[in-house]
C-alpha cells in the first residue's frame, strides 16, 4: 500500500505530508492526523518500498500533491531532505522531528547490519526489546506510559516486512549530509527535539537552527526520541504554529 493514511480537510487548504520513521507506519502520526486533518488533507505514505533513498523520494513525488507542507520523524525527515533536493519548489515548509541533517556516522554501519540480520532471521521481538526499545523513550517516563508506547512501536515493527526494513537501513546508511540543503531552503522550517533523545543527540538537532536563518527549534522536556507519541499534544501545537507560518508565508522565529 503506497498511501497508508489520507484524511481530508478543506479542499483549498495546503496539504500536509507526514513521513514515518524506521519500522514505523501511519500509527506514529495517529494523533497528528486526527487533529490536523480538520483543516487540511493529511497524507501519510508508506516508506521503504524502493531500494535507494533517491528512488524512494522519486516514487513519493510521483504520487503526492503539486505542493505541500512536509513533516518527517527520524528517518522520515532524512527522506524529507531528499524530497527537497529533488523538488524544492513543491515543498512549502519543512518540520523535522527527532532527526538530523548529518550523514550517518561510519561507526553505525556494523550495528545497523547486525540489526538487519536479526530482523531477517525472525528475531523481531527480541531485537526490539533488547536493542531498540531501551533507547526510544524518556528514561524517566512512568511505567504505564512506556508500556503503552512500547506496544504501539512493537506492533508496527512486527508488521513491517523484512524487505521494507532492509531498504530503510539502506536509506540511513547511504544518506548524504543535508546541511547545505537545509541552509538553502527559503520556506519556514521547524525542528522538534526531545530533550532526552538518546538516539539523536539534542545538540545535533539544535545545530540545524544555526545554518538556516529563521529555522525555529522546539525543545520538548521530559521526552525521548519518539516525540510524536511521547509528547503528542506539544508536537501538534508546535506543528499548528509552523503550518500557520507556512500558509501565510511568514518565517518562524527561532526559539
TrEMBL record:
Pfam family, any one: Abhydrolase_6
All copies of domain AB hydrolase-1, residue ranges: 16-229
Source domain of life: Bacteria
Species of the source: Herbaspirillum frisingense
InterPro entries in the record: AB_hydrolase_1, AB_hydrolase_fold, AB_hydrolase_sf
Listed name of the protein: Pimeloyl-ACP methyl ester carboxylesterase
Amino acid at each position: 500500500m503506497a498511501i497508508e493514511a489520507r484524511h481530508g480537510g478543506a479542499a483549498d487548504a495546503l496539504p500536509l505530508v507526514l513521513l514515518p520513521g524506521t519500522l514505523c507506519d501511519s500509527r506514529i502520526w495517529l494523533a497528528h492526523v486526527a487533529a490536523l486533518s480538520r483543516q487540511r488533507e493529511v497524507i501519510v505514505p508508506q516508506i521503504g518500498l524502493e531500494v535507494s533513498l533517491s528512488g524512494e523520494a522519486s516514487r513519493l513525488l510521483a504520487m503526492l500533491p503539486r505542493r505541500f507542507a512536509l513533516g518527517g520523524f527520524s528517518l522520515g525527515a532524512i527522506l524529507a531532505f531528499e524530497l527537497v533536493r529533488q523538488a524544492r519548489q513543491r515543498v512549502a515548509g519543512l518540520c523535522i522531528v527527532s532527526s538530523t541533517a548529518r550523514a550517518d556516522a561510519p561507526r553505525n554501519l556494523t550495528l545497523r547490519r547486525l540489526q538487519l540480520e536479526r530482523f531477517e532471521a525472525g528475531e523481531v521481538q527480541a531485537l526490539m526489546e533488547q536493542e531498540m526499545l531501551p533507547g526510544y523513550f524518556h528514561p524517566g517516563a512512568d511505567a504505564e506510559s512506556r508500556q503503552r508506547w512500547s506496544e504501539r512501536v512493537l506492533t508496527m515493527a512486527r508488521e513491517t516486512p523484512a524487505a521494507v526494513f532492509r531498504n530503510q537501513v539502506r536509506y540511513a546508511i547511504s544518506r548524504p549530509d543535508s546541511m547545505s540543503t537545509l541552509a538553502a531552503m527559503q520556506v519556514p522550517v521547524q525542528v522538534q527535539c526531545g530533550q532526552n533523545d538518546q538516539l539523536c543527540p539534542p545538540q545535533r538537532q539544535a545545530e540545524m537552527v544555526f545554518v538556516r536563518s529563521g529555522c525555529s527549534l522546539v525543545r520538548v522536556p521530559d521526552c525521548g526520541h519518539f516525540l510524536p507519541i511521547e509528547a503528542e499534544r506539544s508536537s501538534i501545537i508546535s506543528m499548528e504554529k509552523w503550518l500557520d507560518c507556512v500558509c501565510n508565508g511568514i518565517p518562524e522565529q527561532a526559539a
